[in-house]
Automatic annotation (TrEMBL):
UniProt KW Metal-binding keyword: no
Pfam families attached to this UniProt entry: ABC_tran
Record GO terms (molecular function): ATP binding; ATP hydrolysis activity
Domain ABC transporter span(s) in chain numbering: 5-231
Organism: Thermalbibacter longus
Keyword Transport belongs to the record: yes
Keywords on record: ATP-binding, Nucleotide-binding, Transport
Highest classification ranks of the organism: Bacteria, Pseudomonadati, Thermomicrobiota, Thermomicrobia, Thermomicrobiales
Name of the protein in its database record: ABC transporter ATP-binding protein
Length: 309
């Protein structure tokens, strides 16, 4: 099966600045992947390059097995982009805006009412765009991205400004679309979006991809157990020695405690291993990493731009 997207060493420079720096990743039909990163990380630039709007400085993009060239209309027809800021005609209704878009892109207008229904805009479709709330604008923009039933969806902050009901609706719709085989790349700084619906996340920071994997695996890899024992010195030697159990990753000493890279489920085995050497835990705290702390760890920031804890 061809990847919906395959990028190699994808780079965009603005002057001396690398907005995206040698990015490599692939995305397959049916995958719903979160592109996560702090402000200015390079998310919008990445989506812009994948949708043919921004010319890469170097590197390659293949969509559905074909190299993306800027004016390849047939290939770009398979891509639906929901930009960060939607631009519509202010005096036209939501429905009429979609009609104009459908006519511009040669898409069958009969699908418009179905799309309006899917995104939950039926009651407001007749109102002029300029009267729309931020959330309604987002929903219209999503409907617009879905025009023509594209196989690849590039969504820049799709649930920004939506109330919880709207968010849930969009989440359900995206899950349904992925189940129908669409490849979806969704940029967000809302960890909750990504945690709830994406199995895989790509984390980008200062233009570089710093993590890419199944969310479960990334979280498991960064899970830790904090430990104090009846003999920390000997425990440290044992747990970092050649005969230590294979499920223990790195070990460090932080704030007077041993910190082991290990899954929380291993806590029982850890005490049994230590007990076999006459060492007993006096404090043993498994810590399952949240996406929030993983994000802070790999980017050095929290998602609201404050320095990470
Ligand atoms: N046209 C441009 N000219 C110069 N610099 C740019 C341009 N577009 C983006 N940049 C810079 O490239 C970097 C990446 O920007 P980008 O918009 O891709 O980030 P982002 O992750 O989408 O951020 P946000 O979450 O704030 O939307 C930023 O430092 C930005 O200032």
């Amino acid at each position: 099966m061809d990847a919906a997207v395959e990028v190699e060493k994808l780079t965009k420079r603005y002057g001396d600045k690398r907005a995206v720096d040698a990015a490599n990743f692939a995305l397959y039909p049916g995958q719903l992947v979160g592109l996560l990163g702090p402000n200015g990380a390079g998310k919008t630039t990445t989506l812009g390059m994948l949708s043919g709007l921004i010319q890469p400085s170097s590197g390659t993009i293949r969509l559905f097995g074909q190299p993306l060239e800027r004016r390849n209309g047939d290939l770009l027809r398979r891509v639906g982009l929901m930009p960060e800021v939607a631009a519509f005609y202010p005096y036209l209704s939501g429905r009429d805006n979609l009609r104009v878009m459908a006519a511009t892109y040669g898409v069958d207008a009969r699908q418009i009412d179905g799309l309006i229904e899917q995104v939950g805009l039926t009651e407001n479709a007749h109102r002029p765009f300029k009267t729309y709330s931020q959330g309604m604008r987002q929903l219209l923009s999503l409907a617009n991205a879905l025009l023509g039933d594209p196989d690849l969806l590039l969504l820049d902050e799709p649930t920004n400004g939506l109330d919880p009901h709207g968010q849930q609706r969009v989440h359900n719709l995206l899950r349904e679309l992925a189940a129908r085989g669409k490849a979806i790349l969704l940029s967000s700084h809302l960890l909750r979006d990504v945690e709830e619906i994406c199995e895989r996340v790509i984390i980008i920071n200062r233009g570089r991809i710093v993590a890419d994997g199944r969310l479960d695996d990334l979280l498991r890899a960064s899970a830790r157990i904090l430990l104090r024992t009846t003999d920390d010195e000997r425990a440290l030697t044992l747990l970092s020695g050649a005969d230590r159990p294979g499920w223990i990753g790195n070990i460090a000493v932080e704030d007077g405690r041993l910190v082991l890279q290990a899954a929380p489920e291993q806590a029982g085995e850890l005490s049994a291993f230590l007990a076999r050497h006459d060492i007993y835990p006096v404090e043993l705290m498994p810590q399952r990493e949240s996406l929030r702390s993983l994000f802070a760890e790999v980017t050095g920031e929290t998602t609201d731009g404050r320095p990470g804890a």
